[in-house]
Amino acid sequence: MIIASDPLLSSDIGFSVVAVMLLKVVLAFALLMVSVMLVIWFERKIVADMHNRVGPSLAGPWGILQTLADGIKLFFKEDLLPERADRVVFRLAPYLSLVPAFLSFAIVPIGGDFTNGGDGTVSIFGHRTLLQVADPPVGILLFLALSSIAVYGVMLAGWSSGSKYPLLGSVRASAQMISYEAALGLSMATVFLSSGTLSTSGIVSGQATWNWNLVATGVIPFVIFVIAGTAELNRPPFDLVEAEQELVGGFHTEYSSIRFALFFLAEFMNMITMSAIAVTLFLGGPNGPILIKQIAWVWPILWFFLKVMAFLFTFVWLRATLPRLRYDQLMDLGWKLLIPASLGWFLLIASLNIGEDRGWSTFLVVPIGLVVLSLAALLLNGAIKKAKDSSLNAADLSEISEGMDQ
Amino acid sequence: MSYLKGFLVTFRQIFQKRVTTPYPEEKRAKPERLHGRHVLGRYEDGMEKCIGCELCAGVCPANCIYVRGADNPTDNPVSPGERYGFVYEINYLRCIHCDLCVEACPTGAITESKMFEFSFTNRNDAIYTREELLVDSESGKPKQLPWEDWREGEDLDTSGWLRATSPNGDASYEGQIAWSGDLGYGIRKAEIGQSDTKTPEEEQ
Prior knowledge:
The complex is a heterodimer of chains A (406) and B (204).
Chain A: H1 15-50, H2 66-75, H3 87-105, E1 121-124, E2 127-130, H4 140-160, H5 164-195, H6 200-205, H7 213-216, H8 220-232, H9 244-247, H10 257-282, H11 298-321, H12 327-358, H13 362-395, H14 397-405
Antiparallel strand pairs in A: 1-2
Helix pairs in contact in A: 1-10, 1-11, 2-10, 3-4, 3-10, 4-5, 5-8, 5-12, 8-10, 8-12, 10-11, 12-13
Chain B: H1 5-13, E1 38-40, H2 55-59, E2 65-71, E3 83-91, H3 100-104, E4 110-112, H4 123-126, E5 127-128, H5 130-133, H6 155-158, H7 200-203
Antiparallel strand pairs in B: 1-4, 2-3, 3-5
């Protein structure tokens, strides 16, 4: 059974259980919508601060309703369908990118006390339940699957627009997503190794005693996850998909009105979800000290919120600081650095785990593992260098033709 | 670790002071010699300064000024001279605010104020007529048209003081007042000369 590990569903399913479930779904939906609204405002405000500007300041106090104003404006604008567009796919694409963004948030536990042997459940109308919409045993795999589906939204949007810039954007999107999804998955795999479970609530309860996976997996997977996640989100400095200076708007050039708003919504929703997943995997999710016992249920939600905010701030900070990568740099970083590094680290963690099972000395396994890894890194580096040199020589046509003459 | 220096640069900006002014609500002080819309001045006795010589129209590179002079009525003269400008029109869709008309004017009748915040919505409004350009014969203030944005405390910005250049560029006349008094603002102070860096206020 796919949603079995939630205690809400282990008893008889009656009307009240369905009502609680519905309440959770509606709450998660509303939470995500409101937080997207606030995150867009937050990003614009922070990026304005970093540019020494004022940012949105007119709609509501501190411009906090700016997103609402933009949303209403977009809603009332004319919806254009390009003449050469593939009508069905063009209409479908925004939903392909929005729905996975919604669904992947369903598996994130946003609260609940996991410390001191707590199972992370809270009581809603007399029912014990986890503070997440669904807790499937495949957990994080669902997130990976959904984020792969979201690529189709971007790819088909560009493909169906019947225009060159969106097409270029979507080609870049699919290549980038494929490249970085591998590194993302491998860095997640190290977490699965150390947690021994795929379920998100399981991963969180495994980090209940300050033994966050950030330390347990040795920081490197976390760094790789953040970099690959930024690329996966098409956020700067990896925003080649919608590089304004080169591709007008990238895949959403031909989109207008509410369809464009849907893409925008999905983009920021993905940003929130990616931060939430990173918090769940590496930073202990909602785990944190319960400071005032009377309102114990508030603290996990607060810690979760603060951790996610730290990520969101980092994403904005990256955007304000780093220039966009060139396409070959993007591919180099993905294939020649992140994937080998995450794979190597995965092997190291795996050998540590096996070593524990077999009773090998950790002091022996770690140095040997590191030596093997650095040897492999040297070999890879040499191979890349050799390949680069030979391709440069091959490109030097004049030298080749001279050689042929002699 | 020098990659991380850049992050510090952007982070520091958060705590720095903003220079942005929330414009429509709040205005910044205008530069001393800003070229805004024209005004046609009057002498302190209320006589018009314009003598209808059409030099401004002749010098205008954008061809935006149209002037016709006429003989002063003998019983009720408009200007102290022989003739006066009885038609005076400036088309603000063409005007480039170069101030050549101000320099050409032999009587200092046409000058530019510091007001540039006017947005008319039809082509007829763009053509300012003589009545619209002339300052009031009582107060010496220009007429405020409905589409012009002047506010309380901007009276000095509306004055058409000659601000384009030093009076005649002749060093021996530096600091000497070479213009006649204006209705409303009286006789202006001498403007800063070409070799002098002190303002007239500092000299006093």
